[in-house]
Amino acid sequence: MGFWSRWLADANFRPEMEGPLSEERTRPGVRVEVQRLNKFFGAHHVLRDLDLAVEPGETFVIFGPSGCGKSVLLKHITGLLTPDSGRILVDGEDLQAGEGRRRFRMAMVFQSSALFNSLTVGENVGLWLKEHRVSGPAEIATVVTEKLALVGLAGTEHAMPSELSGGMKKRVSIARALAVNPHLILYDEPTGGLDPVLTEQIGHVIADLKQLKITSLVVTHDLNLGFAVADRLGMIHEGRLIEVGTPERIRATTNPVVQAFISTQMKVLAR
């Protein structure tokens, strides 16, 4: 079962909502800590003693080449994969223990947007809330309107996904993630498949949402996006996090592997 299907079908994959959905969240974003995480696929050692700490309300960008383990790390945080060793803590609670996952709200923005083409934009955004009867239709409609406005899509509730551009679909996906008032948002290649103009638009949306103080973990191979939205970035190479720092520190790195990746990215963008 895919992550979106699990997210929709399993009420226990998200904790109970507390209070009106349209209220300001009173709890800040959560702290995420990855400790000595290891994952094998057969003989392939994908994650190697990976350590990572993301502070509450921080936007942390993970970058690196395809196949380095970025998306595998996200799947561990969502619970789709179980580590061979190591653990993941959210506000000190071990996610593998079960109860820890119910103490906070997590949402994900997919590379494919993962919208249901038979539903309107508004129905897509409010789908999980409706399926799990979190609130009544009127309040869900209010939440949908608020979240679409946050991503610059006010008034699109009745549009169909087929009427939207790729960038608009991605923003609907972000609005859907915001609808559960999450403490943690995971972005998996949020600008994948978009042209430079739409990529920049999505970058602006993610950057603007930092004011909400939601902890955000962004996986991308696009360093321009990373530099635009990150408080800090980290590069994964051969399953390890080899460099962590602010955008300024990453740009000024003396690590030859990171330098080579940045140089390659800049050449691609210059074409």
Describe the 3D structure.
The protein is of the alpha/beta class. It has 10 helices and 10 strands. It is 34% helix and 23% strand. The strands form 2 sheets. Strands 6-7-8-3-9-10 form a 6-stranded mixed beta sheet, with helices on both faces. It has a 4-stranded antiparallel beta sheet with strand order 2-1-4-5, with helices on one face. Helix 5 crosses helix 6 (166-178). The protein is globular.
Write the layout of secondary structure elements.
Elements lengths: L2 H7 L22 E10 L2 E11 L4 E5 L6 H9 L6 E6 L2 E2 L11 E4 L11 H5 L1 H5 L5 H14 L15 H13 L5 E5 L7 H13 L6 E6 L2 H7 L2 E6 L2 E6 L1 H5 L4 H15 L1
Helix pairs in contact: 5-6, 6-7, 7-8
Query: In what range is the share of β-strand residues?
Result: 15-25%
Largest sheet: 6 strands, mixed
Provide the CATH superfamily.
Answer: P-loop containing nucleotide triphosphate hydrolases
Q: What is the overall pLDDT average?
A: 88
Biggest sheet: strands side by side, in what order? 6-7-8-3-9-10
Question: Rg from C-alpha positions?
Answer: 18 Å
Give the SSE order as H and E letters: HEEEHEEEHHHHEHEHEEHH
Category from helices, strands and their pairing = alpha/beta
Total domains, how many?
Answer: 1
Shape: globular
Determine and state the CATH class.
Answer: Alpha Beta
Question: Which descriptors would you attach to this protein?
Answer:
10 strands; 6-stranded mixed sheet; Rossmann fold; 10 helices; 271 residues; alpha/beta
